[in-house]
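Contributing new records

If you add data, match the layout below exactly. Sequence lines come first and carry their own label; structure lines follow with theirs. Keep one chain per record. Anything else will be rejected by the validation script.
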Amino acid sequence: MMNILANVKPGNRVIVGVGSALVDILAHESDDFVLDCGAIKGGMKLVENAVIDQILEKVSAPPRIVPGGSACNTAVGIGRLGGKSRFVGKCGSGVMGNFYESDLRKQHVEPKLLRSSSPTGRVMSIITPDAQRSMLTYLGASAEAQPGEFTEQDFEGAAIVHIEGYLLFNPDLIPAVIQRARAIGAAISLDLASFNIVAESREFLKKLVRESVDILIANEEEAEAYTGHKDEGAALKALQADAPLAVLKVGPRGSFISTDGGVVSIAARGGRQARDTTGAGDLWAAGFLFGLVQGYSLEKSGELASACGYEVCQVIGTDIPDDGWERIRRLLP
């Protein structure tokens, strides 16, 4: 296995997630409901706070409300696996912000939260019968994060700094985060997050990846938007041409991990049909990054990632129950 962490300072073991601090609102509805709401099936669309309030008046049953955000979900997964985990983001100073911080601590994640007088951001996640989630996002306080608010202390002890692609809506922020992370010797991981965001930011994104990213993670749609290739072999090759380690997730068919040493194929976990794919990619990243920092092989890290992704698809939302984590931990060496 190539040593993607070769330049990390010995003793640095923390995985730091950087992203939008958002509260997830989870509702089960039909494809027609998604269409009527103006959501992008399987994607993410930015909306005003009032739009989410209007949708909440139309849902067929009371939704579930949980802390979320892509990088935050990954940080929580790492904490539940027993890794050293930290989340950096911006939320409101009210009840929802306090709820967010308290829940992170319960999940064994160190919160480094900037606060704002604006409301904490929210995501209306509409889950359809095919287990797909379509998201309408109000960024709220998370959109106010400024490059100068992040310091090297936020990344102290980091082996990997994991950045969610949703931050591309704030294009000055990601380069600033990378600069601070590089200053303490951390490797940089980027999850492409959503195909429509990738398509809108493609040129900026490709330059950023080529110059600064060590680990690039994408699903099929995101990879096609980034590379222009629908063929997964060509897409994976193009991803790895831009980053030393590239991951292509192909849903129920598993995933591929590519380095200059070749391609490792990871089988999907078999068993029950997915109930909800919310957080599947985020938890996949949690297992994979945890494995890398523990010194596991690419194969073992991928196996752990696949198990995390599978277990989160068996529940509504991203909160894997204790028995699910116990099954995952049985895979640890």
